[in-house]
Amino acid sequence: MTKTRRLEDLWSHIHCLGVLADTGSYTAAARRLQISKASVSQRIVELEQAAGVPLVRRTTRSVSLTEAGASLVDHTASAYQRIEEGFSAVRDLSEGPRGVLSVTAPVALGRQIVAPLIPGFLKRFPEVRIQLELSDHLASLATEGFDLAIRHVAGVPDTHVASLICETRSILVATPEYLSKHGTPRTPTDLASHNCLHYLRRSGAATWSFESRARDKRVAVPVRGSFTANNSEVLREAAAGSLGIALLPDFSAGPALQSGALVEVLQGWRVAGEFAERLYAVRPYTPRVPLTVSSFVHYLRQAIPASEGLGRAPAPDAS
Fold first, then answer.
1. Predicted confidence (pLDDT) at residue 240 exceeds the cutoff of 60
2. Are strands 196-199 and 245-249 parallel, antiparallel or unpaired?
3. Closest to 310 (Cα-Cα) out of 213, 199, 174, 166
4. How far apart are the first and last CA of the chain?
5. Which site in 48, 187, 205, 227 is 20 to 30 Å from 144, CA atoms measured?
6. Phi, psi (degrees; rounded to nearest 5) at 282
7. Stretch 150-176: mean pLDDT, rounded?
8. Nearest in space to 157 (alpha carbons), one of 142, 168, 147
9. Which tens digits make up the pLDDT trace of 96-109?
């Protein structure tokens, strides 16, 4: 005969069910709870045994709650949220930022901008541990267990909160050697005779759009080139090899511009629409912002240079 479990022994199990409902998978729930997938499964089984009814529907492709499971989560989710917020508030008062911060960022942006800043943040807040995942996949923060995403985007969903870190811009670059050999474009239409290295997208033929600095002229130019890639670092290296003219976000081009390995092309024109013009820190909406999250966002704002200087190598210990 199954021994009746005391309700107080099941608090963590009920919380686990709520996290499973929120994330939609055992793997994501385990990641958020920082336990093994097997432990999540075991807790759910024990909770179902204690409840006497199935709480989770399991298939080979998905996980969903039964009516009983959804009802249990609905009745308890707000209580667990209040417990978490109350404990975090008390801990923040006494200890400052601490715990695990899970962050995701695009590969190129993460490697060039975010990763160099992390040592300085961790030295300042030694009780924090950061898990950084670099991926160009636009992760669902809630379902995949991330606390924060650093994104180079034009906008974010209404269900999330976006904090502007800085403005960015797109620039055309080439080596002095390439321009000496093939000529320097004076207007956007001159690009038709150049090898243009562009970001690989699924929308078909590449077109670069420009606006004059005085904003009195606009032009869209179809471009062709011998090389495309879906990573700005790769395009920068191709341009640095004098292969052609590349269109890059400023954070990718900056160090090479500083060293003189690359020079900016068509400085009298602003590139429009190719890359986003703002860098955001994005988090799921919560009534209270965890101190670790707000501290990291504040640190990034202070450490990453503003628009014209974003491409410069940021100082990790900037404050």
1. yes
2. parallel
3. 166
4. 62
5. 48
6. -115, 135
7. 83
8. 142
9. 788 899 999 988 88
Q: Which residue in 205, 232, 221 sits closest to 271, CA to CA?
A: 221
Average pLDDT score, the chain: 84
* CB neighbours of residue 119 within 10 Å: 12
Question: Given strand 170-174, what is the order of strands in its sheet?
Answer: 228-229, 196-199, 245-249, 170-174, 263-265
CB 113 within 8 A of CB 313: no
d(CA 158, CA 233): 31
From CA 244, how far away is CA 226, in angstroms rounded? 9
152, 279 Cβ separation under 8 angstroms = yes
Residues in the chain: 319
**Close Cβ partners of 10 (under 8 Å, ≥ 6 residues apart):** 46, 47, 50
Using CA atoms, how far apart are residues 303 and 6, in angstroms rounded to an integer?
50
Residues 6+ apart with CB under 8 A from 177: 242
CB neighbours of residue 14 within 10 Å: 21
> Which alpha helices (H) appear in 126-278, and where do they start and end?
141-144, 176-182, 232-240, 250-259
* Per-residue model confidence (pLDDT) at position 122: 96
Q: CA 164, CA 134: separation in Å to the nearest integer? A: 20
pLDDT band at 307 (very low <50, low <70, confident <90, very high): very low
